[in-house]
């Protein structure tokens, strides 16, 4: 593998058979480093001058804008663009140590895992200091913290559970403060859904654990099939977009002077094409999930972060399609009228593109909370499914069923928000045609065709004469 470094601030790029990113990196026990080159290869990642073999990673935890990697030697935290940290997480997961995950979770299976989370912990338990990055496994009986060769356990119930709200300058640092007679602990980087789930179990006394030999022998994944994929249909956005495309086509004010060229049917076709671009990300993710063999694979196929990136690409794709259509019409009129390109609208089109980019950015921002909630529920569901693999065969599956319902509910909320955001965009595009594009096309259409120059006419006359003389010569001889 050859590695050449990216400039600071650059997004990821391909480096032969690897990907290079620029992340802020924290290695447990060392000061944070800014804009460190991180190169992902097939069997290892290179963090600056350090190498982390993927088969030494026993856990990967996604947080808000962070990915935490846990190995028995070190814990790493990477902060960067959401799409980049997600790609890093998927790369590491493919090569991580599954056996180590199993050996960590299996002894806790009888306690019923509620959720797992990478967290920044501080405080003490039974007089022992707890600080730094840890993997937290919350069960119905206790909190278990793992980091390198350290392990701490805080049994339930605790005396007090209080939520830590995030400050405006600390996005993603929400968490919990747990207080007990022998412990005082603060946990950061928890999702709101995780905070709620932990708060429910941390205050109550757990029921006794039923010991069974099957716990030692088999995990549930070995004796029962995985839950089947139960997928949302995205019907709300599909119906909303269909109506929005028709409404946008009807909203365009047709100019009677050029109605023969730009009639209502023209805009119905145009907005149908834009609607297909809009619906593309949902159809792509839904189609990929439909072929999944299990619920876990389906959830991964419908990954909220990837859907978010697909949506951003679709917004850009719709803008490109719009200006390609408009630019094509301008070029056609310029050619028809034999007008020079100086009569075109490149400067004005650039101004309108900038305005539309602002509209698209605002709609994407309005969707971010919905994507974030789907992502949080997705993480919780995958955690429950992962814990299920190592649980005894008779373990109650209501936790998985509840997490599935909540995940689907958040996707349905996103489905409605997605349709509304695109409806607004399509309406703005209709106004752009009415107020900017069609008036300019009308002005171009009204311009008189430019006559050919004397030189051009003489050249055409000479060409025609040559062709006629040639034809007569062939006929005569």
Q: What does it look like?
A:
Helix content is 51%, strand content 21%. It has 12 helices and 15 strands. The protein has helices at residues 82-95, 98-105, 192-202, 213-217, 220-223, 235-251, 264-290, 295-301, 304-337, 346-390, 398-446, 454-476, and strands at residues 13-15, 18-27, 33-40, 44-47, 50-53, 57-63, 66-71, 75-79, 113-125, 128-139, 142-147, 150-155, 160-164, 175-180, 183-188. Helix 6 (235-251) runs antiparallel to helix 7, helix 8 (295-301) runs antiparallel to helix 10 and helix 9 (304-337) runs antiparallel to helix 10. The protein starts with 12 loop residues before the first strand and ends with a helix. The relative contact order is 0.09.
How would you concisely characterize the structure shown here?
By secondary structure, the chain is an alpha+beta fold. It is 51% helix and 21% strand. It contains twelve helices and 15 strands.
Broad structural category:
alpha+beta
Oligomer: single chain
What is the ordering of alpha helices and beta strands? EEEEEEEEHHEEEEEEEHHHHHHHHHH
The span between the termini is 73 Å
| Amount of helix | 40-55%
Number of helices: 12
Shape: elongated
Give a short account of the largest sheet. Answer: 8 strands, antiparallel
> Which value, in Å, is the CA radius of gyration?
30 Å
Average pLDDT for all residues: 82
Annotation, overall tally of beta strands: 15
Beta-strand residue percentage: 15-25%
Low-confidence region ranges: 1-16, 212-223
């Amino acid at each position: 593998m050859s590695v050449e470094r990216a400039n600071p601030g650059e997004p990821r790029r391909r480096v032969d058979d690897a990907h290079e990113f620029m992340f802020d990196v924290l290695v447990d026990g060392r000061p944070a480093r800014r804009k460190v080159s991180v190169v992902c290869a097939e069997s290892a990642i290179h963090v600056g001058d350090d190498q982390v073999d993927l088969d030494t990673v026993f856990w990967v935890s996604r947080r808000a804008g962070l990915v935490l990697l846990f190995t028995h030697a070190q814990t790493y935290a990477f902060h960067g663009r959401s799409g980049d940290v997600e790609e890093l997480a998927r790369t590491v997961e493919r090569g991580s140590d599954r056996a180590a995950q199993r050996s960590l979770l299996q002894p806790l299976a009888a306690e019923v895992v509620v959720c797992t989370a990478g967290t920044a912990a501080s405080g003490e338990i039974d007089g022992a200091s707890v600080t730094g990055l840890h993997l937290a496994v919350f069960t119905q009986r206790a909190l278990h913290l793992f980091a390198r060769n350290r392990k701490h356990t805080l049994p339930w119930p605790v005396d007090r559970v209080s939520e830590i709200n995030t400050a405006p300058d600390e996005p993603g640092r929400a968490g919990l403060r747990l207080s007990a007679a022998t412990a005082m602990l603060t946990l950061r980087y928890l999702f709101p859904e995780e905070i709620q789930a932990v708060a429910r179990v941390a205050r109550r006394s757990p029921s006794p654990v039923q010991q069974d030999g099957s716990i030692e022998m088999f995990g549930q994944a070995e004796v029962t099939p995985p839950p089947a994929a139960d997928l949302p249909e995205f019907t709300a956005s599909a119906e909303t977009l269909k109506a929005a495309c028709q409404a946008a086509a009807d909203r365009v004010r047709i100019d009677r002077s050029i109605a023969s060229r730009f009639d209502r049917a023209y805009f119905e076709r145009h907005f149908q094409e834009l609607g297909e671009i809009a619906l593309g990300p949902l159809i792509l993710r839904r189609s990929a999930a439909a072929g999944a063999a299990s619920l876990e694979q389906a959830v991964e196929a419908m990954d909220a972060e990837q859907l978010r990136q697909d949506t951003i690409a679709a917004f850009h794709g719709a803008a490109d399609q719009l200006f390609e259509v408009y630019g094509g019409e301008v070029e056609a009129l310029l050619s028809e009228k034999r007008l020079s390109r100086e009569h075109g609208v490149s400067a004005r089109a650039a101004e309108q593109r900038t305005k539309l980019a602002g509209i698209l950015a605002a709609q994407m921002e309005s969707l971010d909370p919905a994507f974030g909630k789907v992502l949080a529920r997705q993480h919780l569901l995958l955690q429950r499914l992962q814990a299920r693999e190592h649980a005894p065969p008779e373990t109650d599956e209501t936790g998985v069923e509840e997490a599935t319902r909540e995940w689907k509910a958040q996707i349905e909320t996103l489905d409605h928000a997605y349709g509304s955001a695109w409806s607004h965009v399509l309406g703005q595009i209709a106004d752009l045609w009415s107020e900017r594009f069609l008036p300019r096309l009308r002005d171009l259409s009204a311009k008189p065709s430019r006559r050919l120059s004397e030189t051009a006419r003489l050249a055409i006359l000479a060409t025609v004469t040559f062709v006629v003389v040639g034809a007569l010569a062939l006929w005569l001889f």
